[in-house]
Amino acid sequence: MTDVHAAARARGDERFRLVREMFSGIAPSYERVNSVVSLGLDRPWRRRLADRLEPLEGRRVLDSCCGTGDLGRLIGSRGAQVLGVDACRAMLLHGQPGPGGARIEGDAQALPVATDAVDAACVAFGLRNLVEPVRGLAEMARVVRPGGRVIVLEFGQPRQPLLASLHGFYTGRVLPFVGDLISGRPGTYRYLPDTISRWPPPDELEQMMSSVGLADIEHEALSGGIAWLHHGRVGATASTTTEEEGND
User: Fold this and answer.
1) How far apart (Å, rounded) are the C-alpha atoms in residues 202 and 219?
2) Cα 155 to the chain's mean position, in Å?
3) 80, 137, 214, 233: which one has the fewest Cβ atoms less than 10 Å from its Cβ?
4) What is the pLDDT of residues 71-96, one digit of tens each?
5) pLDDT (0 to 100) of residue 242
């Protein structure tokens, strides 16, 4: 049996350090590997997230755990002013901000952003990497003005048995091999299936979002549940609802 990746197994400050070092090593090939190992699905998933943020023209949006900035560039191309924050300097150096955007180095669990400073906040495939994901959610909720959206795009587990089986084989065997080959970093992409398998199901993530004061919470399955999109509002009063299905 393959050992669990060290960064997925670690806790506290050690996890923070190992995750940052891992992403520093794969930064040059990060976007290319994402596109290949997701079979190109990462692009429509990000577009779906951007659709949920509309209208974007003139809005201020925080992109937490922004990485090389692929999501920020997409949102910026729709007229938003995007502030990207990431703890890994190498990821920031190997990417580009979107039109009128900016990026700064910082911990998503203690964002260097003022309270109520932005109109919306989002994170794509980064919440899973935090030592304390609830703190990351609380920080996004803190910096968004009342009524603004907080949106999370994250990997998950398909609920249809056959798709779940195929997905398990692909992420457990094929994805680590291809990711390591393209990045030139043997063993690194074992981290992805290890953390996906440990990530809570959508209902539990909804509870985490509710615990930090978000409301009007919904989630939708993308590509049969390979990824999930979660969205809520800051300072809203409507009751939490759940949307079980969505389209790419």
Assistant:
1) 7
2) 8
3) 233
4) 999 999 999 999 999 999 999 999 88
5) 36
